[in-house]
Amino acid sequence: MSRKWNRRKGIIMEEEILKEKKRETLKRLNKESNQITRECIQTGLLELMATETFDHITVTSIIRRAGVSKGGFYRNYKSKEEVLQEICENLFQYILDFLSTHKIYENTKEWYTFLFQSIADHADAYQLLVKAQAPQYIVLQFDETELFQKMQRNDSVLEKYRALAIGKTLTEIATVWFRRGMQETPEEMAEILMEIFFIKQ
């Protein structure tokens, strides 16, 4: 009796393990499918912005261009603005990644140069957003909270406001520099910022 019971118990355990593996596989496939859908939607929006202004682009036109269903769109995004926001955040993610290993207060000039060089390297993407008259509050914007936290030396009130002041100023200067056609080199912009903030290195 006990041998039969143990065998039955073993079969049940194997079935549970298989079910769990299937669930994990389905989760992974759904995640991959959603990622592909998101990429198609983003690509569709970028393609439309090459010929139309952002205001004239509709969710329906994005869906058609992306080749996804209406349900697929709304499972991933609430609006076309949210799609654009993610595109811009992805463009700025490399800067946040750089900040994880390069602190602004350790080599400020290098950090400023990297910031402006990164924008220059992705100028085509930013130019497309500008040409399509994408909302200014989205273009050249990013998760400021995360950026400011990474710019702080510590959690003091002074450091929080210092990071806020530098971050907001950098955003405005980078936007103006880009819209003026990036006339100065990234190295020259780094020098200008060093002078603005009275930094000597």
Characterise the protein shown here.
- This protein has 201 residues and is an all-alpha fold.
- 75% of the residues lie in helices and 0% in strands.
- It contains nine helices and no strands.
- Helix 1 (2-49) packs across helix 3 (70-76).
- The longest helix has 48 residues, at 2-49.
- The N and C termini lie far apart (81 Å).
- The model has no long low-confidence stretch (mean pLDDT 82).
Question: How many DSSP-defined strands?
Answer: 0
The overall pLDDT, averaged over residues, is 82
The rough form would be described as flat
How would you characterize the largest beta sheet?
none
Distance between the termini: 81 Å
Q: Unreliable runs, pLDDT <50, ≥5 residues?
A: none
- Structural class by sheet pairing and helices: mainly alpha
N-to-C SSE string, H for helix and E for strand: HHHHHHHHH
Multimer state? single chain
User: What is the count of DSSP helices, taking H or I runs of 4+ residues?
Assistant: 9
Strand content: under 5%
| Radius of gyration from the alpha-carbon trace, in angstroms | 24 Å
Helical content, roughly?
A: over 70%
